[in-house]
Structures
1.
Amino acid sequence: RLLEATKSTDIQMWAVIIPPSEGATSLPYRSDYIRWSRELAKLSLKYANFRGFNIDDLQVGRSHDTFTRDYICKIYQTKEQINPHFLFIPTIYDLDRAVADRVTGCIDGAWLWWVNLEMETGLPSFLENTRYAVEGRFPIYGGVYAHWTSWHKEGNPDPKVFRGTLEAACKYADGAVIWQLSIKPGDPLLEEAKQFLAGGSSPYAGKCGTEDPSGKH
């Protein structure tokens, strides 16, 4: 229904599927991730604005045992056979060389989340080291939280920290993904995010993940 409602807009839709470590409660296929891949890819043939799907926490807890390289590749190959333009980009929190080797060739990229809502210090090296581990084999997108979480109940990030985290993601990753950004007019984090759109005040306005103004990356 959501795809039908947005099919004539410029809104690009993604599906996020709950992993075993969080209960695998996404309906109707629950933990049958190959079935999810097949059915979502079929939908993408009908709806051009349906860009891809994400499985959260690919390497966390029980999910690590479920998502072996063989299983990840089967998920990827299933959607590839139906629509290779439909993207499979899972969430990964710790992307070292071993994990990169495990998923290379079987994902279209990774959402890599920075979990420190208090500061952006350390994020540039975190992303740079990840790029060295990945060695250009697939894109990484810096995940930025715009809302408090179950493990950080002290409140939303400070607007300056949020902006700094976004800038680091734009500079050192292939783009940025924002989690739970408010769309309430005047929200300070929404106003910061707008500065990354074309015409905004950020040096990455309109080109997040595509160019480093310093020329170093």
Note: Helices lie at 2-6, 33-46, 62-66, 69-82, 97-103, 123-134, 159-172, 188-194.
2.
Amino acid sequence: DPPSAVRAFDEGMLGLAAHGSYEEIVGSMTAAEWMYHTWCTEAHAAAPADPVIAEWVGLHVAASFADQVAWMRGQVDQHGPALALWRQERVANAFARTLALEIDFHDAPYQEDLS
């Protein structure tokens, strides 16, 4: 069985994909991809020695990935203000929930006994 944080991530993302609005899904993806881009920009400056990690970091600092993050942020900025307040709150909740799920997912190996 995968750690509970991995199951929660899976269920949360699949639930949003099945039932979320366009704006909620883009808000969620913005949270995840922006977080990766931000973290990897700092990690890239430190030049990871492990080639697998360096490749993963490089993927998330590439111009095409940065452009994707900028496009998603633009979608949130464009559509968000036009939404009714209750829908803006749902987008904000999707953003915050995704960050929490991502952090828990990445913390899982350090929090649970995987043996």
Note: The radius of gyration is 16 Å.
